[in-house]
Design a protein that fits this description.
single chain; about 800 residues; alpha/beta; Rossmann fold; seven-stranded mixed sheet; six-stranded parallel sheet; 25 helices; about 35% helix; hydrolase activity
């Protein structure tokens, strides 16, 4: 297969599987998939006597047919036992085959054909999303099609086409089978075979149907599709490009036509009132016509002067601008209760401009907005939703029409390109692949050539012609509730660095800086010496620590608790606005980061190039130290139960006891947590410190650490640190021969751990310590002395 064709097939196969959802009651969620490169052996197909895959997709039919006998028998057995189907795509052959039999199957193929005029078999049980009855006229893409012929009743055509030089379809014998279903009557394995890849838009629909059919409905897209069309920039536009009265009449007529096909449909108009009646005399009448028919539309606030919100430095200014728009709405009878708004140029929505969210809530009670920018404009299929400051942010889709798209003759690529997008192309696939679509358009798209009316009427008719999707529309608030019912995992945002995306930098507040974001994270875990390390690092002139958090002191704990939902501005406020010189870098330490489930992904999204430092001590010692620490802080559970009772509590114990057990034991599963960090960060970004050595030889550890961080100047910590016999550890050396040590809560002397608790923990942590030892070998890192000791005494 040609490289470009392989990439296209891979992209759409993955996208089809990504978009497949299971339906359980009111919740829908995406299924998981795995891509395997063909090798000498099959991937693991079962786990605990359960099948791992619902459908198996082969990019190459030839590779599937030519599998070695052993793997083929194993695969067929798996498919029969777990009722798993197979999808495979024919690839171009270097030589033309005429009537060649597919190896191992009673089916014959003709290859390297040019085809035209595709039709579907209305009796095929595979069809679900796809609707039969029409013909896709014209030449099919590519000239390397494969067609199938079989005399066995196990095979049934799904799709047909004509050879390119045929001029009639009156004779059924001239129809060529391009997609065939194998009912599995011969060997018990059901299959759907495609005669070409996914360049043909109809094959993309049929792939979704094949996945649904072969998985017995488990991998099935919902047939519901929700559509909302925003018309931004109402009353905004250059003279000569705005709506006339007849354009408003056409808008109403088109809306009525769409309502017959899309129940509940209404155009959603966003207005900037400052520019009301700023056009020609005919355009001013158009503005009046919109207001005269205001009850026929849904409305939302834009900005009074169409200004970008991120250019306003405080919330009061934004509120004043929004109030002007609201006063206009009240005076002219425009409904103000949609709870929806869109920001000009997506400014302030993402990257988040906090004053915008506050002003929205106060003035308009905005609960829903939409943007193309989260996490990035492209690719559109990866856009997600999130919630911030009580506002639900939905992903917004484009339809190929922009502010400057006024005339069909000037459409980029011409009408042919627009029609391709509508008739199975990008716009059509957007609706197919997204259960909820919010399309961005502009007022100018509805005047002039009325391109938007043509676009949406055409794509809706094409969807009705070729699919069984049930189109509907609803107000934004209802769509937001539906969206997050389907994708509750998207409610919490994933903050990225605005400076990594030039578009995001342009729509971020001018007073915001990215260069003070930390380039170093000390991630803990707790009670391993992270506070001491934080102090030692702060002594270096090239390192700038975060400002203290009033509630958690030196720790910000941003990535793993509710502070993350406060947003990026909250985090940035703890770092200086500027650095003394370019060689300085900022850092922060939060010991709870190490074992936080969401922390590695969140940290990498914002700080992908950061260096990560973790400190490890004997997990048994760490667990006991943590227990004594919270006991000294008056934790009622720790004060009411012995350490042994806590660590040996079973799952039937009271929840507070189980929670404390987990907080004692889980951070010590070092290899498990490190593996999660290594999924996000490369090994060369991770530095693992021996906590025992940090306590006994801190100067040596800091020397190694300076080299890892490439810090200049290289400090001699032997001159900066001094052992304090009263505290029992090294402290900062002062000029008067005294030391400045950590507070009373650090370096406490605890009673020895009970022997029975020590034995229990050694046994408990042995498999985890063994896994850590293997991980360190894999990373080429030395095993610390405490690990060697723990493993030797466990034998």
């Amino acid at each position: 297969m040609k490289a470009a064709q392989t990439r296209l097939l891979d992209r759409y196969v993955r996208r089809a599987v990504e978009q497949s959802v299971f339906g359980r009651g009111r919740n829908e969620y995406f299924c998981r998939y795995k891509v395997e490169v063909a090798g000498k052996s099959l991937p693991v197909l079962t786990t605990l006597d359960k099948g791992r895959y619902g459908v198996i997709v082969f990019e190459s039919l030839a590779k599937y047919a030519n599998m070695d006998k052993w793997n083929r028998e194993l695969l067929d057995k798996y498919c029969r036992e777990y009722s798993v189907g197979i999808v495979a795509f024919a690839t171009p052959n270097e030589e033309t085959l005429v009537g060649a039999q597919l190896k191992g199957f009673p089916i014959f193929m003709h290859t390297n054909l040019k085809l035209k005029d595709a039709t579907l078999n209305p009796a095929s049980p595979v069809l679900r999303l796809t609707r039969a009855g029409e013909t896709a006229w014209g030449t099919l893409p590519g000239d390397h099609w494969t067609v199938f012929r079989a005399n066995s009743s196990t095979y049934e055509p799904v799709a047909w086409a004509l050879k390119h030089n045929d001029y009639t379809a009156s004779d059924e014998r001239s129809l060529q089978t391009t997609v065939v279903q194998d009912h599995g009557r011969l060997d018990g394995v059901q299959r759907v075979l495609f005669g070409s890849g996914l360049q043909f838009w109809l094959h993309r629909l049929l792939l979704l149907d094949a996945l649904s059919y072969l998985s017995h409905g488990q991998l099935s897209l919902s047939l519901e599709r929700w559509i909302l069309v925003d018309i931004d920039d109402i009353f905004v536009g250059e003279r000569g490009t705005r709506l006339h009265e007849e354009d408003v009449a056409a808008l109403l007529a088109s809306q009525a036509a769409l309502q017959r096909l899309v129940p509940g449909f209404r155009f959603n108009l966003g207005f900037s009132a400052k520019y009301y009646r700023h056009g020609t005399a005919l355009e001013n009448r158009g503005d009046d016509a919109l207001l005269h028919n205001r009850d026929q539309f849904t409305w939302f606030c834009h900005m009074w002067n169409h200004q970008q919100p991120h250019l306003y430095s405080n919330v009061t200014q934004l509120e004043q601008e929004m109030m002007l728009n609201k006063q206009f709405a009240i005076e002219h009878g425009i409904p103000t209760n949609s709870c929806y708004s869109v920001s000009p140029h997506h400014s302030g929505v993402y990257p988040v401009h906090e004053p915008l969210y506050l002003a929205w809530r106060r003035v308009w009670d905005v609960q829903v907005t939409s943007t193309e920018e989260y996490p990035h404009l492209r690719p559109a299929r990866l856009r997600r939703g999130f919630r911030h400051q009580g506002v639900m942010v939905l992903p917004r889709q484009t339809c190929g029409l922009f502010t400057h798209t006024l005339l069909l003759e000037r459409y980029p690529g011409g009408r042919q390109r627009l029609d391709r997008s509508i008739q199975g192309g990008e716009l059509f696939q957007t609706v197919i692949n997204n259960p909820i679509n919010i399309f961005m358009t502009h007022m100018s798209n509805y005047g002039n050539d009325r391109l938007a009316l043509y676009t949406f009427e055409s794509v809706v008719k094409f969807l009705r012609c070729w699919t069984n999707v049930r189109l509907g529309s609803a107000p934004p608030l209802r769509l937001a509730e539906k969206y997050f019912q389907m994708r509750p995992d998207e409610l919490n945002p994933l903050w990225g660095n605005p400076c990594d995306d030039i578009r995001h930098r342009r729509i971020w507040a001018k007073n915001k800086r990215c260069d003070t974001l930390p380039k170093l994270l000390v991630i803990g875990p707790q009670k391993t010496g992270s506070t001491a390390l934080y102090t030692f690092l702060s002594m270096h002139p090239a390192l700038v620590a975060n400002l203290p958090n009033p509630t958690t002191y030196e720790e910000l704990q941003f990535f793993n608790n509710n502070n993350y939902l406060k947003g990026l501005d909250w985090y940035l406020n703890f770092f200086p606005e500027g650095l003394a010189n370019s060689s300085q870098i900022t850092f922060e330490k939060s010991a709870t980061y190490f074992d936080g489930d969401l922390v590695p992904r969140r940290a990498h999204a914002l700080l992908p190039n950061a260096k990560i430092i973790t400190i490890l001590i004997s997990p048994s010692k760490r667990a006991y130290s943590w227990y004594q620490h919270i006991r000294s802080h008056g934790d009622p559970v720790a004060n009411n139960y012995t350490f042994h009772t806590i660590i040996t509590a079973n799952d039937s114990a009271p929840k507070p006891l189980r929670d404390l057990r987990n907080r004692c034991l889980n951070p010590g599963k070092y290899s498990h947590h490190l593996e999660r960090w290594l999924l996000e960060y490369s090994p060369h970004q991770l530095h693992i410190l021996d906590g025992g050595q940090l306590r006994s030889e801190p100067a040596l550890v800091m020397s190694t650490l300076q080299k890892f961080l490439k810090l200049t100047p290289h400090l001699d910590y032997n001159k900066l640190l001094k052992y304090d016999p009263k505290k029992g550890f090294f402290c900062q050396a002062m000029s008067n021969e005294k030391t400045k040590c950590l507070g009373k809560s650090k370096g406490r002397n605890y009673p020895p751990m009970e022997e029975r608790s020590s034995k229990f923990l050694k046994k408990y942590y042995t498999p985890h310590n063994t896994a850590l030892s293997k991980l360190l070998v894999r990373l080429g890192r030395p095993a610390p002395q405490w690990l060697r000791d723990d493993l030797s005494t466990a034998r």
